[in-house]
Please model this.
Amino acid sequence: MAPLEQVLKAFLEGGGKVIDTAPSYGDAEAVSGELVKRAGGRGKVFLATKVSSTGLDAGLRQIEASFAALQTDKIDLIQVHNLQDTATQLKLLRELKEQGRIRYIGITHYVESAHDDLLAVLAKEKVDFVQVNYSIGARNAEKRLLPYCADKGIATLINRTYEAGRLFAKVKGKALPAWAQSELDATSWAQLMLKFVLANPAVTTVIPATSQPKYMLDNLLAGQGRLPNAQQLQRIAAEFA
Ligand SMILES: NC(=O)c1ccc[n+]([C@@H]2O[C@H](COP(=O)([O-])OP(=O)(O)OC[C@H]3O[C@@H](n4cnc5c(N)ncnc54)[C@H](OP(=O)(O)O)[C@@H]3O)[C@@H](O)[C@H]2O)c1
Model:
């Protein structure tokens, strides 16, 4: 818990708001709930979790367990995880939203092959948030899904901004170009990768994962300074080609 406590401290002190977790991430909900409580973060963080069940009863049981693990009586956002039993779980989430137990509902996925499925759900169902993968190395979301969300006023959470860490291998041993700092106020490859994603007007927030305080401090810096324009986006992408 000690390093994670430091991660959360850096996150809150740096103005971080959104914590995304899930019942299927081992102890993550319980750990997040306990650490947010210890850090006095209640009411300051936006808590997002997921439901990954089949059937109304199983979904409700899982969601009640999330409330208990997160030690809260209000969850900001619950998302249908990887489109599992989507129609049934969205119905349940809408009921909970009407009861005031959750503020927003959403759907998630993490692979490009599911983007068409996400769009098909959005054509039928009204949701507040879509969580999807988007990065310098996986740009499919910018073609149709992100513009669709912007057009319909749907908020977006972006996962896999580092492709689970794999994107760092593409620039291993390579010096950060001088223009990263002089033009975009970025002092690391990580900040450049996040700024690439944040520059898309359809992106509401990014949720890079880390267990290390030094990475959290690094990631938070992407929230400051200038964002790339179209020509600078091309230059960033060329560095990762
Ligand atoms: N289907 C879904 O709904 C779904 C699927 C995947 C992910 N997610 C969400 O997205 C979040 C992000 O996870 P992800 O899988 O997409 O991974 P990611 O954020 O693309 O990458 C995480 C990896 O990057 C490393 N890292 C983080 N910051 C760094 C920095 N500044 N410098 C160097 N390395 C850094 C981490 O290392 P350390 O571990 O050493 O810190 C970790 O190995 C998850 O926590 C989850 O909330 C949702």
